[in-house]
What we know:
The chain is of the alpha+beta class. 20% of the residues lie in helices and 37% in strands. The chain is built from 1 helix and 5 strands, in the order βββββα.
Amino acid sequence: MGSDLEVSALAINVTIPQELQWTDTRRGEVFRLTTLNVRLLPDGHLAVKAYGRPVAGGRGAYVSFPVPDRPELATLVADAAGRAGTLWAGHRGLG
């Protein structure tokens, strides 16, 4: 194995700090967005979606939303990707 090993994607989940969380609406229901899923694409770019649960509570679906274009969220994504890279580079194998 070596450089010919194909890895389709790497993904991390990032908790959105409370002060950066926001709400969005889907099908008339308001959701609080609390988690980012950040994927490293094969070309080196990042893709991100936000996830959350209904504000009203209950057993609503865990629904994805686009991430607003806000500098503080872009910084959170970049910092999380850098931290994940450091963690991946220092892995100690299975077990």
